[in-house]
Amino acid sequence: xxxxxGHIQELSEKHKQLEETINAEMANPDWDEIxxxxxxKEKLRVKDELxxxxxxxx
Length: 58
Known about the structure:
- The protein has helices at residues 3-27, 33-57.
- It is mostly helical.
């Protein structure tokens, strides 16, 4: 599938953005545990999707 490499790049960027958002949120003294937990869950979902797509390329 020719769409996968572009989709992988898009998911990689989203994963990076989620990491940055989590770090920024946790740098705030009043960080929201529920928001961070949701962001981490989304980051894990993206990581799992990335791994699935990468393994299907090989």
